[in-house]
Amino acid sequence: MSEASGQASFRSRRLGVLVSGRGSNLQALIDAIGDGRLDATIAVVIANVEGAGGLDLARAAGIEAVCISHRGWPSRDDFDRAVARELQARDVELVCLAGYMRIAGAPLLEAFPNAILNIHPALLPSFPGLHAQRQAIAHGVKVSGVTVHLVDGELDAGPIVVQRAVPVIDDDTAETLAARILLEEHRAYPEAVRLVLDGNWRIDGRRLIRTAGR
Ligand code: GRF
């Protein structure tokens, strides 16, 4: 990724949220929209797992909820193309991965260039991948946190939009640390979505640079 601008890319502020599980970050976005902290509309929630809690949360909030299982497609790209089609059919401008346990492949990245966000429960580039909180405890770091970043082709990479630190305390387990990080995730994700939608940023190499509206 070299130079790109967020200026004026997001007009309708329509989000698509992709989930695989319980969906507490989806709920944080729903709540932020509901109480006016985030000016956006969630056009659709898509889960790749049947019975994902996020689908129920979406329906409870009156949001269209769609399940597209990743199983049974001839290729990963075919699955990603199907997801991209559903998002585009609803005029989604920004895609938010919220506990989505799939890597966004080329069809999604091409359909939404610089317009896919992910949230990760660690201070990237530390502890990418699964069980980030367990990795942080095992490594013995004193500070971990949350990262919201634009998605590129790599796992848990891409320009960082928002990071928040969370101290690790001596008697933390992966579970207690995860719970404290999650509280911070729920603040960081709506903030990052707002920042990206507002469009006052540009990409310079790996860096997302704010251009106005601080
Ligand atoms: C969160 O910790 C998120 O950072 C990670 O997966 C978890 C999803 O939780 N990518 P939820 O489904 O949003 O509750």
Describe the structure.
With 214 residues, this protein is of the alpha/beta class. It has helices at residues 24-34, 53-60, 76-89, 106-111, 132-139, 174-198, and strands at 3-5, 14-19, 41-47, 65-67, 94-97, 116-120, 143-150, 160-167, 201-204, 207-210. The strands form two sheets. It has a seven-stranded mixed β-sheet. The two termini are 23 Å apart. The mean pLDDT is 95. The protein binds 5-O-phosphono-beta-D-ribofuranosylamine. Residues 19, 21-25, 98-99, 119-121, 182, 185 line the site of 5-O-phosphono-beta-D-ribofuranosylamine. Residues 19, 21-25, 98-99, 119-121, 182, 185 line the site of 5-O-phosphono-beta-D-ribofuranosylamine (GRF).
- The helix/strand series, from N terminus to C terminus, equals EEHEHEHEHEHEEHEE
Mean pLDDT: 95
Q: What is the tally of helical segments?
A: 6
Cα Rg: 17 Å
Please give the largest β-sheet.
Answer: 7 strands, mixed
Write the SSE topology:
Elements: E1 3-5, E2 14-19, H1 24-34, E3 41-47, H2 53-60, E4 65-67, H3 76-89, E5 94-97, H4 106-111, E6 116-120, H5 132-139, E7 143-150, E8 160-167, H6 174-198, E9 201-204, E10 207-210
Parallel strand pairs: 2-3, 2-5, 3-4, 5-6
Antiparallel strand pairs: 1-9, 6-7, 7-8, 9-10
Helix pairs in contact: 1-6, 5-6
Bound molecules: 5-O-phosphono-beta-D-ribofuranosylamine.
Residues 19, 21-25, 98-99, 119-121, 182, 185 line the site of 5-O-phosphono-beta-D-ribofuranosylamine (GRF).
